[in-house]
Amino acid sequence: MNKNRISRRSFLKSSAAIAAFVSAGSLAYSETQQAFNNAPVSPLKIPGWRRGHLHQHSFWSDGSATLEEACSLYRDAGYEFVVPSDHGRFQADTDKWFTPEGPKRAAYERGQERYHFPMETKEEGGKLQLRMRNFDELSALLNQEDRFLLIPGHELTTHGADGVQVHSNLINSRAEVTQELVDKLEGQAPAMYMSRQITGDKMSPHCSGYESVSWSLRAIKEMIGDTPKDEVFFQFNHPDWIWYDVQPEWLCEQPEIRFFELINCGPSLPVRPDFWTTEKYWDIINAFRADKNQPLIMGTATDDTHNYQRFYDNFETAAGGSVMVRCDTLDAVDLMKALNRGDFYAAVGVWLNDVQFDKSTGTLAVDVHAEKDVNYKIDFIGTRRGFDKTFRTIDSPKEGRYPARKINVYSESVGEIFKTVEGTHAEYTMTDDDLYVRARITAMVPARCTMRGKPEHPTCWTQPVQK
Ligand SMILES: [Zn+2]
Ligand SMILES: [Zn+2]
Alpha helix (H) ranges present in 255-322? Predict the structure, then answer.
């Protein structure tokens, strides 16, 4: 047998930890291509819509899967585009080796058992090392015209000295400049100031979570550079997790932040039901923004996947958060433009044939892609002019390394249900009093998966609109 060629058999040997060094460039392309493209056809295809996943991790940061497995699992679950978004890192290196140990070794073998990806491996000090395919290599293998697309991204990861975590995804930023800028800017991130002793950084080493939010926005702008704004997508991640506590008021004051992760079915910390639900959080921002004629914030849904075991426990229910984007082409720039226009909805298990807003009449209409024998409830939710802007403040006590906080709780007039319809088609016509309206469509069956962060019922959310 030719030792320099990875066949399935030799791969299996390497996965059994038999030392096998395989030199780069020795993988037979057609064989490799075949191993990557043996995917089932997408089980969900609604004409006019593209299903995407905007937030997931791999061995390139703190995820428990190769990039190959992480992306393929989402493809096989019916997603047409995925954004691998590792913390502070774009997968650019051409010579990056990783030693999967403990649970990560088990995760690696589990993934290889399913996919048999040809991998370059070597052994050092008795330990298996993998060369990690970078984004471009993997795109060349996985992308399939009009069927599957990888889009570059990364999660800018920083926090304030007060412990507030500030994470955001920059998506479809130009691959060739991203890593350099990420290194530079994350090296200057407020929370890293003290440890890295970056000189010339004007940020205070004791900057707050609030300052960290505005710092992140500036960093993202620098990363975007000259790229047309609508060709990249920037979303603020999981701001309402307990202890992360990016206050909604901060996002009211940063109207340039136009997208946030409404639903994160990941390793998430819970939101604070005693202070906000995730939808209340959304409405607080939009009520105050609409009141000041500022752009509304729109919501995405993702899994923020770190641990892919969920796919092996129950493949059918593993994938949850999706964005459904109205886009004819499976093209990164077209998809980013549609997202930036707000031509998408956030979904966890409920799909739409159509959502339309007629600005001249102020009518928002939704048509559900109904499953057999499932009943649906359609709520139209918004906030009216003259809403009660007062709030009471609750103390959030110190817990472990998390400091004490104060959190504002707003009245019921922020995020009211204007109208409810049981059925698969409904519309709502805005009155002159309505600041904005959005629709939430709930399937009246229990959620098949109860990952923390997933809603109790399959649900989708359309974006808020204004007359
Ligand atoms: Zn995060
Ligand atoms: Zn993440």
Answer: 278-291, 309-313, 315-318
